[in-house]
Amino acid sequence: MLPVEDADEYPDDVFVMAENPTTGRNERVRHNKGSFVFRLSGRDRQRSASYCTPEVLTRCVVHHALAGAVGPGRPCPRGGSANIQEATELLDLTIREPALGSGAFLNETINQLSAECLKRRQAELGETLDPDRYLRTPEGEGPLALHQSYGVGPQRHRRELAEVSLWLNAMHRA
User: Fold this and answer.
1) CB 35 within 8 A of CB 65
2) Residue of 113, 80, 79 lying closest to 95 (CA atoms)
């Protein structure tokens, strides 16, 4: 859910779409103020750690969280007056997920930080880098995922699921 005035900042693929009965075109579903939105959710799946956080949610939440933390001209999240400018400074960050679950938010954070790091590194060098090759280097996302990402969760099987998910995400690109 977001304010209508912010809707143009997002692509159509992040919205629930429905066919307009008059025009026959797919349009964004709009929930008017004061309306009730009911979503039936599989609670059994959540309790068993088989609940999947929708990618559109993780992508949006992480995008806005990182924009506030490492966006251009933002103060360094570690404190002080330094701004994160260089690509490798992004990979010095420590990521903590206080409600780990299956690691969906950690994975998305690693993906977005790595993509931003690659973009900045290419700008620094003035050349195009092979993402698969660059991100596997010591300054790439593997070390970020394996050594600088932490999560807290009450259930051991969920933590183990998150560890496997992080490992697979860092080692293999779909």
Assistant:
1) no
2) 113
Could you tell me the CA-to-CA distances from 132 to 37, 129, 157 in Å, in that order? 41, 9, 30
pTM over 0.70: no
- Euclidean distance between the first and final Cα of the chain, in Å? 29
Q: Convert the pLDDT of each residue in 119-136 to its tens digit.
A: 888 888 898 888 777 665
Q: What is the pLDDT of residues 10-36, one digit of tens each?
A: 888 888 889 999 999 999 888 887 777
Please, is 95 exposed, middle or buried when counting C-beta atoms within 10 Å of its C-beta (0-12, 13-18, 19+)? Answer: middle
Alpha-helical regions (H) of 5-155? 43-47, 55-70, 87-90, 104-125, 131-134, 141-147
Chain center to CA of 67: 11
- pLDDT class of 174 with cuts at 50, 70, 90: very low
110 burial via Cβ count (<10 Å: 0-12, 13-18, 19+): buried
- Give the separation between CA 44 and CA 47, rounded to whole angstroms: 5
- CA 74 vs CA 107, 147, 168: distances in Å: 23, 25, 31
